[in-house]
Specification:
alpha+beta; 6 helices; about 55% helix; elongated
């Protein structure tokens, strides 16, 4: 079976990103360490050009370590919740495992759906400030020329599923272009 790449906005994305950042960080720290040890073994001292290259090699490794720490803080959607949500999504534009950042806070949203100028999201994370997330997403939409979008974040799965069902029953008034613009924006502003 061919291993398919999991894209941003799909279930399993955060889990995949965790593995990638851990592997990349280990590799990026191993290279300078190997250079340093090679220079030490060849010259018998750490006063050589390879030591300087190894120290400079720690800069991208440190940046990768920061990305790894940020990624490890977030957990993807649980498989059981994803299956329940999938049964209710219908024709809505749906995205999973998004983490939005603002100057004040970060918001982990496990699932989002959009239809008829209504963007809804579900988070299982009790630390997520739902009202602040709504405000942040509204302002990001407005800054990017997407006006008239109602944003609502739910912390309870049954309430989110009920709203998904209600969205599905509404008459479709949305243009595909607006939905794709919103999708692109959400993917661009999430980790």
């Amino acid at each position: 079976m061919k291993n398919q790449k999991i894209k941003k906005g799909e279930e399993g994305y955060l889990r995949c990103q965790k593995k990638k950042t851990i592997f990349r960080t280990i590799l990026l720290f191993a290279l300078p360490l190997a250079l340093y040890l090679t220079g030490l073994m060849v010259t018998g001292s750490n006063r050589n050009l390879l030591t300087i290259v190894a120290v400079l090699g720690c800069l991208p490794a440190s940046r990768s370590a920061v990305n790894m720490i940020v990624t490890l803080r977030y957990h993807g959607i649980e498989s059981e919740d994803a299956r329940k949500i999938a049964r209710h999504t219908g024709s809505c534009l749906a995205l999973s495992e998004l983490v939005f950042t603002s100057y004040e806070k970060n918001f982990e949203i496990h699932h989002m759906a959009y239809r008829n100028h209504c963007l809804i999201g579900y988070t299982k994370n009790p630390a997520c400030d739902q009202k602040a997330c709504e405000t942040h997403l509204k302002s990001m939409c407005k800054k990017n020329g997407l006006t008239g979008i109602e944003v609502r974040i739910f912390g309870e799965l049954p309430a989110y599923l009920n709203r998904l069902d209600a969205l599905e029953k509404e008459k479709d008034e949305e243009t595909p272009e607006n939905a794709q613009r919103l999708r692109s924006l959400l993917l661009a502003i999430s980790l």
